[in-house]
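Service request form, structural biology core

Requester: graduate student, group of Dr. S.
Request type: structure prediction, single chain
Budget code: on file
Notes: please return the result as structure tokens.

Sequence provided:
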Amino acid sequence: MRNLQRFASALCGSVPGAGGSALPRLAAPVGVARSLSTLPNGLPSSVTIYEVGPRDGLQNEKKVIPADVKVAFIDLLSGAGFKAIEATSFVSPKWVPQLGDAAEVVARMRKAPGVEYPVLTPNMKGLAGALAAGCREVAVFAAASEAFSRKNINCSVRDSLKRFEEVVVAARKEGVKVRGYVSCAVGCPIQGAVEPAAAADVGAALHHMGCYEVSMADTIGVGTPASMERMLGATLAAGVPAARLAVHCHDTYGMAVANIIAAMRMGVAVVDASVAGLGGCPYARGATGNVATEDVMYMLDGYGISHGLDWGRVLDASEYISAALGRPNGSRAAKALLARRADAAEAAAEPRPRSPRRRRQLRSR
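Core staff response, request fulfilled:
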């Protein structure tokens, strides 16, 4: 832990080094700083939902999904008001066969004005592929758990950060924005609980190496509001501003929305989510998908928090991808609202009975 803390400090500009000397500061992260305003209850007045369905939501599907379906799904999302849609991952098809068509999907999907289409690039080869495809935002991920890091990418947390720093530096030289993820930020399927300081160290390292935003991920959905508060508190104390943080919650124990509310109370105003609750973790038996975009929207509407999304179009995308995968929709809010929409359409299609007055008029003729 001490070595990792020193490594994070080395990436941080103003942290004193040995003997009190100041370590050199890296250039400020590429990206637009968010100005946060709050409601009287202390929650942010607006929240950005970062849609991860096309990448994180689909990557673990066992049945091969045609590129046509992925492109149509992204195009539906593009018209729904999202500012960012994580489209795919430039990773070896050997490890993630489902996303072996990344270049094709990026080439064919419609790029809507004002929408970012980030892609995951776990290494320099992935970055090269993303740059060749014309991507202007990429993402890297590092685990807060040593056990998970070794299982997932076969190296220590410290070594993974060195790899990702190379990707971040190279991307920023090309003027490409970089987002960072901290996986297993509150719990790990291998080692169990993760210390808040461990997650905070990795988050701080990603922030200081140049990631414009760091998403703290409850990868297996074991978090509670209490563990979320402890982890985010440690991350804020490590020097990552709330305006540069996001949360990424899975809903295994039904705590995702509650955890997001806890994060919002601490100033976080970017939430990763997946339409229809798509996703999961291949290393955690029983882990369910990402928190559903629709469930987050419903919660935000209840608080009067702006999210800028079009309910009808989000539901269209949700209904489409659930049908394409041949499975029930994973969002409680979507299921309820789609049922209401179907009832309304059925009622509108039924012929209306003639009024008694109308019948009398017809008989008099």
